[in-house]
């Protein structure tokens, strides 16, 4: 499944982590002790801050454009950086670019690279079975966000990371993030301050006074940072929920993955999820002409710039090439 020798258990598709309770999701225990406050608080706070977008004083068209463009730019940190590059190793990029993409992903507050990769590889190995961290078989709300709100001590062990993300945690930068996870918060605050400063200066220059600067800064903070973070969250979560519930199935993959055009549209191609489960190693999830894959277009652009190599083609292309050799 993952064509890297650094992740042998997952590559073979045979690795299984034994359940630590009658149902894996019961591992954290019920009640308040099982609530994952480190995730609940930021998810609630950023949603609340994004609601400031409803105030007319916080509105600007440039803020809206930044939110929409930013959803794709910062979303690429997740879709390209965390998913196709770090999880599936579908291409190679220079280390500085890989770490840059991972840092962009950190600005989406979707956990450390090691945890994201390990959890997603677990999802591929156990898709829609009881050990899947976020199968809709445990509830639609659970698959969308509920699974993030409950503690999962079985997915916080060194043994789990060693099994599912050994290649990621071997990197000094990713290991540092694992040891100092509050770094994510500082990176997020820093990127909010960049939007604030840029809005302040642009507003001052275009509006003629600092009042305009402060207002544009507030608009950019709310729209370009908070609204955009919420959008990227729900887009990523929709791949886990909607793309395992609604859509067509091209392949009988033995689980519930679907090709969902809406999720594909908003998630830069990631919604062609049945194609992805059929061939997780491929850098492209476009198997039909209408299955547009924006993330793969970005990968091809990187290749054209000489920044992406060893791009893994779809399985039928790989097989055709192998039969010619
Ligand atoms: Zn899936
Ligand atoms: Zn995947």
What string, H for helix and E for strand, traces the elements in order? HHHHHHHHHHHHHHH
- For the residues shown, what is the average pLDDT? 91
* Sheet of most strands: none
Could you give the count of β-strands?
0
Proportion of beta-strand residues: under 5%
Report, as a whole number of angstroms, the end-to-end distance. Answer: 22 Å
Name the helicity range: 55-70%
Structural class: mainly alpha
Low-confidence runs (pLDDT<50, min 5 residues)? 1-22
Number of helices: 15
**Please, how many domains?**
1
**What's the Cα radius of gyration?**
20 Å
Plain-language structure description:
The protein has 325 residues and is mainly α. The chain has one domain. It contains 15 helices and no strands. The model is unreliable at 1-22 (pLDDT under 50). The two termini are 22 Å apart. Bound molecules: zinc ion (2 copies). One zinc ion binds next to helix 13.
Strand-helix topology:
Layout: H1 8-12, H2 37-50, H3 61-87, H4 95-106, H5 113-125, H6 140-149, H7 158-164, H8 166-169, H9 172-179, H10 182-207, H11 210-240, H12 261-266, H13 273-278, H14 294-304, H15 315-324
Helix pairs in contact: 2-11, 3-4, 3-5, 3-11, 5-7, 10-11
Bound molecules: zinc ion (2 copies).
């Amino acid at each position: 499944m993952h064509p890297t020798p650094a992740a042998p258990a997952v590559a073979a598709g045979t690795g299984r982590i034994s359940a630590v309770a009658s149902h894996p999701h019961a591992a954290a225990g019920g009640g308040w002790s099982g609530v994952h406050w480190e995730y609940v608080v930021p998810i609630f706070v950023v949603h609340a801050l994004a609601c400031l977008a409803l105030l007319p004083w916080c509105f600007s068209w440039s803020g809206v454009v930044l939110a929409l463009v930013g959803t794709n730019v910062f979303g690429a940190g997740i879709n390209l950086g965390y998913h196709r590059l770090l999880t599936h190793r579908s291409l190679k990029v220079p280390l500085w670019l890989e770490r840059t993409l991972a840092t962009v992903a950190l600005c989406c507050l979707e956990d450390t690279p090691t945890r994201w990769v390990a959890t997603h590889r677990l999802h591929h190995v156990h898709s829609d079975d009881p050990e899947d961290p976020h199968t809709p078989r445990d509830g639609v709300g659970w698959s969308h966000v509920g699974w993030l709100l409950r503690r999962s001590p079985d997915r916080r062990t060194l043994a789990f990371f060693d099994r599912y993300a050994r290649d990621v945690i071997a990197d000094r930068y990713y290991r540092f993030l694992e040891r100092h996870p509050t770094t994510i918060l500082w990176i997020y605050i820093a990127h909010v301050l960049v939007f604030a400063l840029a809005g302040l200066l642009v507003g001052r220059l275009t509006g003629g006074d600092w009042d305009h600067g402060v207002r544009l800064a507030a608009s950019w903070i709310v729209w370009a940072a908070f609204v955009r973070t919420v959008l990227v969250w729900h887009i990523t979560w929709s791949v886990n929920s909607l793309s395992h519930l609604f859509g067509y199935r091209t392949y009988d993959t033995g689980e519930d993955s679907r090709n969902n055009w809406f999720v594909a549209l908003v998630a830069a191609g990631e919604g062609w999820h049945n194609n992805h489960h059929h061939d997780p190693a491929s850098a492209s999830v476009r198997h039909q002409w209408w299955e547009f894959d924006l993330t793969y277009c970005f990968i091809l652009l990187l290749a054209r710039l000489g920044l992406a190599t060893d791009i893994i083609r779809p399985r039928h292309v790989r097989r055709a090439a192998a039969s010619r050799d």
